[in-house]
């Protein structure tokens, strides 16, 4: 069935108020668009020619996705799914550079604050950019942002 046909059927079903079929067709249409976008991306970016930086980017996105899933599963009381995601996260993270602990990140943030002359939370963008440049892939963005926010709030309060 072609996507245009699916759209026509979807419009007809909406007028008939057939909610379950509408949801199924909506999902099929979305999956078709996802697959079309994926195919286009694969044509443009040949996976066998990915360099190390591109592979690292893919791994980092997967780590972020797993962490978000773990958080959602834990909020939803689905411990078994959270554990499965944690196991996958451990495997994926093993292929990335070791992450610095919070104390090392804080030291880099304080150095960046001094170098950039940041005065408070409004300068967070400058500080994070300087820290990301200095630390590269060795510190997670969430950790850098949280530490930078805390340090800048302390600086603004003093």
- What class would the helix/strand composition place it in? mainly alpha
Query: What quaternary form is this?
Result: single chain
The profile of the biggest β sheet is: none
CATH class of the largest domain: Mainly Alpha
Count up the helices: 7
The ordered string of helix (H) and strand (E) elements is HHHHHHH
Number of domains: 3
Helix content: over 70%
- The CATH topology of the largest domain turns out to be Arc Repressor Mutant, subunit A
Please state the CA-atom Rg, rounded to the nearest Å.
22 Å
Report the uncertain regions. none
Fold blueprint:
Layout: H1 3-16, H2 19-44, H3 52-75, H4 79-93, H5 102-116, H6 124-135, H7 141-157
Characterize the structure shown:
The chain has 158 residues and is an all-alpha fold. It folds into three domains: 48 residues; 47 residues; 56 residues, Arc Repressor Mutant, subunit A, CATH 1.10.10. It is 78% helix and 0% strand. The chain contains seven helices and no strands. The longest helix has 26 residues. It starts with a helix and ends with a helix. The model has no long low-confidence stretch (mean pLDDT 80).
